[in-house]
């Protein structure tokens, strides 16, 4: 058996009185590609924000590469994570958001080189070389010196992916990365994700409304409904063959 790269163990998350995640148990294998589907408000974004350490679980544990994200485990005791611990676990995780979160006053190249310089303490030249390689990979080899405001939404999203990829994460998280894009720009972004799914060895978790895309690239699809994983299986099992009425009802919108 492979050691899972990610493990959620009975994870709960509440915001005030709103109980958003109600006991999530989930193992993700190294290299596995997972799509999370489900109605708006079901907790999809919260699941991946927890993994990115942008939110802390109310209860339960999340392990990444064997390390508890939120707790320092020592001699059978669990102590609250400090910034140093969080920084070390974050190194394995990359995330791309719906809105690109690029630095507007930096060139595309500097946007991508910066995390290597700041977090990995890499030399500037070395960082820029790596950033160039990633920008080439996402098809932006001719845009090193452009600023985010000069790019289309699809190009910005590809920069955001390159910026996450330079860190060589073991897991990449994609939160509805195409939903803020004009329809004609969706394809170029999906194409990059498809290339990564086929050729990169990292695990990927995508929150997506692109059912055909999920069918095409996901090893496993999770249907999240009111804070629980209501269905889990191959894309074909979940999207084409499940008789769960709530899932059927959700999928109607995409047919
Ligand atoms: P989804 O991604 O499936 O649409 P989310 O994970 O974004 O769902 O949100 C699930 C629920 O949690 C929603 O009801 C949302 O309003 C609530 N929620 C998410 N983040 C916060 C927050 N920071 N504060 C309060 N409520 C939140």
TrEMBL record:
GO molecular function ontology, one term from the record: ATP hydrolysis activity
Keyword Cell membrane: yes
Domain ABC transporter: 6-251
Membrane topology per record: Peripheral membrane protein
Keyword terms, alphabetized: Amino-acid transport, ATP-binding, Cell membrane, Membrane, Nucleotide-binding, Transport
InterPro entries referenced in this protein's UniProt entry, alphabetically: AAA+_ATPase, ABC_ATPase_HisP-typ, ABC_transporter-like_ATP-bd, ABC_transporter-like_CS, MetN_ABC_transporter-like, P-loop_NTPase
Keyword check for Transport: yes
Short name of one Pfam family: ABC_tran
Subcellular location: Cell membrane
SUPFAM superfamilies per the UniProt record, alphabetical: P-loop containing nucleoside triphosphate hydrolases
Superkingdom of origin: Bacteria
Any one annotated GO CC term: plasma membrane
UniProt similarity note: Belongs to the ABC transporter superfamily.
Name of the protein described by the UniProt record: Amino acid ABC transporter ATP-binding protein (PAAT family)
Species of the source: Salinicoccus kekensis
